[in-house]
Design a protein that fits this description.
Length: 191
């Protein structure tokens, strides 16, 4: 975003800049190839979000996130409603009656889980998000697409291991999980 965008948001949503402006300025800096890595892997005062097991939406209203062990696995939910849907409604029986169970939410439901522990460059390549030259990324973190030297390539993202918050949550001890979830709910960024 540029200054015109900042002004528009501030006009429509007074206080927007104080809350989000610095982050978007940092994003603008990180979108350019200056020897740093992908934005998600840089220190940008941002914690990658947990994903709701039911609706697959990131749990961004952090204080509403529910964490529960369902079917032997720790899961995160964006709300009490999504938690209830998975833990209660999508079962073979509800309040003693058989249900027309739409099917449990099972398996590898999150794309993060499917790619846990892989190098970001390999994920992007495997998904086919590379241009015809075999190295330039289709998605770019900026809109300056005229200069090939400014375009991000697989080499710019290689060496970053992607980890699933869901897998990491299940690898934590109870104490680590409780501390992590408490910090996540407050929006604290891990050191």
């Amino acid at each position: 975003m540029d200054d015109d965008d900042f002004e528009w948001f501030e006009h429509k949503y007074p206080g927007w800049y104080d809350k989000y402006g610095k982050w978007w300025e940092r994003y603008g800096e990180l979108s350019k190839k200056n020897g740093h890595g992908p934005i998600t892997f840089e220190d940008a005062d941002y914690q990658y979000p947990h994903r709701c097991w039911t609706c697959m939406v990131p749990a961004l209203i952090r204080e509403d996130m529910v964490v529960d062990k369902v079917d032997g696995q720790w899961r995160t939910y964006c709300s009490e409603t999504c938690h209830w849907t998975d833990a209660v409604a999508f079962r073979g029986e509800y309040e003693g009656r058989p249900t027309p169970n739409m099917g449990r939410l099972t398996g590898f439901r999150e794309w993060e889980t499917l790619h846990h522990g892989k190098d970001l460059a390999d994920i992007i390549s495997d998904l086919g998000y590379v241009r015809d030259d075999g190295k330039t990324l289709i998605p770019q973190p900026h809109l300056d697409l005229d200069d090939p030297k400014k375009m991000w390539t697989l080499d710019d993202v290689r060496g970053n291991t992607f980890n699933s918050p869901n897998v990491l949550l299940n690898e934590m001890s109870d104490a680590e999980r409780e501390a992590h979830v408490a910090a996540y709910r407050t929006g604290a960024v891990p050191a």
